[in-house]
Specification:
With about 260 residues, the protein is of the alpha/beta class. It has 9 helices and 8 strands. The chain has a single domain, classed as TIM Barrel, CATH 3.20.20.140. The chain is globular, with a radius of gyration of 17 Å.
Length: about 260
Amino acid sequence: MRIFDSHCHLDDRSFEPDFLDVLHRAAAAEVYRMLVVGINRSTSDRVVALANTYSGLFASVGVHPHDARSCTQETLDHLTFLASDPKVVAWGEIGLDFNRMFSPKKDQEGWFIRQLEIAEALDLPLIFHERDSQGRLLEILKATSSTRRTAVVHCFSGTEAELTQYLEMGFYIGITGIVTVSKRGGPLRQMIPSIPVDRLLIETDAPYLTPTPQRNKHRRNEPAFVRQVLMKVAEVRGEDPEALAEIVWANTCRLFRIDPSTS
């Protein structure tokens, strides 16, 4: 089968000692493509460099809500320059995070809206991060709606009502290893059958959110483990894993406008 990890952070320092081994383990698990996601200026520089060095890797650029406090227009100008690289296939991860509040709400919202405008001007799909925004992310998306906007809601863990609204907007839904966790993943497993199969993406968010059973042995998540996410989603939906893998591969390539037939 062909598996696409649609969201990982392979630029993380934890991968430096065994980066090539990580890629080899991914290939052994039939994970042949990975989208490496930028969250600020420095990480965006790194992920673009990685995507241009290793086949099968693609990149996105953006400013995460945690980093909004230090964002400037000059930062966004630099990311816009990076986005001209053919290996950059999305803008993100961007959004709102009112859980840990690393950046003030005003900064998060202001730079989120500005990045929506830039992505639309560049005609790039978006990667959304949302945590505990109490509906504010949806409010902003509705207030700035665009018929050209395409996006994935990364690491979806919201409510059924939020899921319905995201789907009505035409967005894709990214499923992480949370789906494999007995207690924490319960609500997500209940909602997964209601997600149209052509809107599903799978992801690791590596090095975070290691799925079960790998989390019993490994603290660090890595792209090879997205195979376990696929298997659990297929189990919950009662679908053949190989058939589902091919559909999700096509979904990911369609969203990020990547030729599904090439490396």
